[in-house]
């Protein structure tokens, strides 16, 4: 019985991590990050940047979530300070990232909880999580 439950759990987790992810009503592009050091963890968007991002979104309320949840103090405990991120970069590279929008030379990615259940508990977002990276380190998977 335990083996069946374990097999079912593995199947459900695999299925959740391999199904397409949708954001803003569109299939999101899975991306990889080539340098975690090119992250903006406390970035404040300018009015012009907000306008540029808003033009790319179908759901305008998504911008409010991006503004709030791109701040490190809303991220999981294992990554919500610079010291934590410096100590845990290798583990962070295992996140599944999805491109949301780009502005200037920066790209916003989503780190959805449902696509990151394979991560240690302290890394799994409990709500929305967005990260702004330099666009030069965001590559297609």
From TrEMBL:
Does the keyword section mention Ribosomal protein? no
Q: Which residues form the signal peptide?
A: 1-18
Q: Which GO terms describe its biological process?
A: protein ubiquitination
List the Gene Ontology MF annotations in alphabetical order: ubiquitin protein ligase activity
In this chain the E3 ubiquitin-protein ligase NRDP1 domain maps to 28-136
Task: Give yes or no: UniProt keyword Signal.
Answer: yes
Q: Which domain of life is it from?
A: Bacteria
**Alphabetical UniProt keywords:** Signal
Protein name (Swiss-Prot/TrEMBL): E3 ubiquitin-protein ligase NRDP1 domain-containing protein
Q: What is the scientific name of the source organism?
A: Lacibacter sediminis
The top of its lineage is: Bacteria, Pseudomonadati, Bacteroidota, Chitinophagia, Chitinophagales
């Amino acid at each position: 019985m335990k083996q069946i439950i374990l097999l079912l759990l593995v199947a459900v987790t695999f299925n959740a991590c391999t199904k397409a992810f949708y954001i803003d009503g569109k299939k999101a592009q899975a991306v990889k990050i080539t340098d975690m050091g090119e992250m903006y963890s406390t970035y404040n968007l300018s009015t012009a940047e907000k306008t540029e991002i808003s033009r790319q979104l179908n759901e305008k309320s998504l911008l409010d979530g991006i503004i709030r949840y791109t701040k490190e103090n809303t991220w999981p405990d294992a990554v919500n300070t610079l010291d934590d991120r410096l100590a845990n970069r290798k583990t962070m590279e295992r996140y599944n990232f999805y491109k949301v929008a780009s502005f200037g030379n920066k790209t916003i990615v989503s780190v959805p909880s449902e696509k990151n259940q394979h991560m240690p508990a302290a890394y799994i977002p409990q709500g929305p999580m967005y990260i702004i990276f330099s666009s030069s380190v965001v590559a297609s998977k």
